[in-house]
Amino acid sequence: MNTAIIGAGSIGLAAALVCQRAGHSVTVFDPQGFDQKSLSGEIDPRVWALGGQSTALLEDLGAWSPDERVVPYQSMHVIDARSDAKVTFSEPSLGHLVEADWVRNQLLAQVSGSKIHCVPDRVESVSQRGILELQRDQAEADLVIFAEGRQAQTAIASGLEIVDGGYRQRAVVGTLKCEQPHRGEAFQIFTEYGPLALLPLPDHNNQHRVSLVWSLDLETANELQACSVEELASRISQTSEWARGELEFVNQPIWIPLSQQSLKHDSLGCLLAIGDTSHGILPLAGLGANLGFGDVIALKQTLEKHPNAHGDRIARTVARERRFEQRTVAMVMGLFSNVFRSDQPLLQLGRSFALRTADRHATIRSLIQELAG
Asked: How far out from the chain centre does Cα 131 lie?
């Protein structure tokens, strides 16, 4: 079977390796090219909190190994800024914090040692029968997988429709020097402006480091974006209730527009959308990458279960298997965004009850951890 992958991000490359292992002839298209990014010095602000299922997939693909830039975390402490509610998740290996570029580099190394074809060209559109319109040529595939990210330009040009899920926000991410060590604990506080997370990173030059992700309403984001870097760091230290002491940016913070979106249908003929192309969610729990790798796991299982299936059946099966979890996570993240931002007394009481209940019942904590990874 000829399979075309559009997009050479981590999700697209993982899908390419899965399809190649299933015996497909695989071609990956990406106009941005296939060069590995040089990683040195400070950790890049763009990091992922990967759960066990994601790392197990990467390990199976040969793209996961111990590294000084990969940080395991054993616990996550979550509190509500406007009540005494809190919950702590803990187990020997709750997850790993890792740079997105590190993961992509590992996958690129595996792809370069395989028979997968890498083409640095843009695909303009694809027909439901798998005819790819390139800038100067045509190509044909039995299965076409879109993994081109949120913009989904080729997917839209090919007939897939984006559904706007709303929740317009902006997030600030960055790497911070912190006064106190994290000891392998991820910290998250739900504030009136949006959820703020300080995630554990490796020490650098004997200084402690955390990764910041703070999702904000647009009004507050505009206000904070106008601040100096020093003022922003001070605001984060105060808002995090000094959980890691005094904080200081070690590189320029990055501001990212956020929203929730999905596709009306994730498959169309032999076309299949996965990763952020299929589902863009608010990063309240860092679920985006885990959901994307979950799509790849569903693709792997479908190919193993139906080794002789045609492309349209593969696309339809994967889309059906993943749609419930994708929509459930999007709905829950939207509810979290609304409930934890509200000052209404009943919702404050509900927040307190929810976190207290999760903190007291191991079964509920386990379910949430499974959803996260």
From this structure: 30
Distance CA(152)–CA(282), nearest Å, equals: 17
SS3 content of the chain, % helix, strand, coil (to 5): 35, 30, 30
Domains detected in the chain: 2-35+45-165+258-372 (3.50.50.60)
Reference 47, options 220, 186, 227; nearest CA is 186
Residue (of 205, 196, 200) closest to 175 by Cα position: 200
The answer on pLDDT for 82 being more than 90 is no
What are the beta bridge partners of residue 166? 260
Q: Measuring CA to CA, which residue among 186, 168, 256 is closest to residue 214?
A: 256
- Quote the pLDDT of residue 304: 97
Question: pLDDT per residue over 266-309, tens digit each?
Answer: 899 999 999 988 887 655 545 678 889 999 999 999 999 999 99
Q: At a CB cut-off of 8 Å and minimum separation 6, what does 369 contact? A: 51, 89, 91, 94
Decide: 94 and 71 in contact? Cβ < 8 Å.
no
> How confident is residue 348, by pLDDT bands cut at 50, 70 and 90?
low
Q: What is the tens place of the pLDDT at every residue in 2-50? A: 999 999 999 999 999 999 999 999 999 999 999 999 998 888 888 988 9
Q: Count Cβ atoms within 10 A of the Cβ of residue 238 and give its class: 0-12 exposed, 13-18 middle, 19 or more buried.
A: exposed
Element (H, E) at 117: strand 117-119
Whole-Å CA distances, 161 to 106, 284, 340, 371: 32, 25, 31, 27
Q: List the one residue out of 208, 226, 201 whose CA is nearest residue 216.
A: 226
130: nearest Cα among 310, 355, 306: 310
CA–CA gap between residue 186 and residue 298 (Å, rounded): 28
pTM greater than the 0.85 cutoff:
yes
Non-local CB neighbours of 228 within 8 Å, separated by 6+ positions: none
297-327 burial, b at 16+ Cβ within 10 Å, e below that, comes to: bbbbebbeeeeebebbebbbbbbebbbeebe
pLDDT band at 66 (very low <50, low <70, confident <90, very high): confident
